[in-house]
Amino acid sequence: MKYAVRKLAMMLLTMLIVSFLAYLAFQIIPGDPTNKILGTEATEEQRQMLREQMGLNRPFLVRYGDWLIHFVQGDLGDSYSYSMPVGEMLAGKLPVTLLLALLAFLITTVVSIPLGIFSAGRGGWVDRVMTVLGQLTMAVPPFFIGIILTYCFGLVLQWFTPGQFVSFSQDPGACLTYLVFPAIAIALPRIAMTVKMLRSGILAELGKDYVRTAHSRGNDRSAILYRHVLRNALVPTVTFLAMTIADIVAGSVVIEQVFAIPGMGRLLFSSISNRDYPVVQAIIVLMAFWVVLVNFLADLINQRLDPRLRLQ
Hints:
Layout: H1 2-28, H2 33-38, H3 44-54, H4 60-72, H5 86-91, H6 94-120, H7 124-139, H8 142-156, H9 172-206, H10 209-216, H11 221-258, H12 264-273, H13 277-305, H14 307-310
């Protein structure tokens, strides 16, 4: 219980620091948001009136505290470009990005863990082939894999129509069919990395004394692998998968551009180019919260897998 409370306190502190840095960054970047709202033809008096209405003339810490309180309450501010609440803008984009990220993570986990166990028990040409394929997959950027998948399965085989995304509410089957290809593009490099890490962890555990002791007591290889070795080897792998699912959300931002998916990626790029700081701030803080939350859950899972962590 103390372990979970300590990790939760660290998570909250991390989010506080991230939110402060995100807010600070867009306060020191050159540019006046009133120019974006009023245009270049506005007078200085009009700009001063708008700054007063938006509270931009108040001290920085006062503005940050007010923004943080509203953010925690669910008020993410208003967009400079669209003059509408940021929360309403993200409501239609965030589920698409999360669905893509979760699908990519599911593919990564389901494929990489069995492959990692299989590769740890094989040698010879099988091991060499899997190593070469893994290195090749890790070397190719996901966006390039996405371009290849779009050409092969979209243009040649016509399994989906590039650029014609169907929302989950309209047709769940068509939506998942469209998302599975960008999810594969995101997952392939991470599958290769997870397989390599799990394989290395299993081989390292197989060389330890407790494995030799278990063999001497008549336990077969499969029983030792699944009862003891795999449990210990999964501890660093779970941590890596936590970092992976956090990285998948960031990677999906780029892949969304390749497959023309209307998620947070397109909104983030357009908001950056338009200097729509409230939207960018909200997306950065939400992504950071996702990363911190996933790592918090990974720490709790590792505590259950490794009894030594419960004694800390």
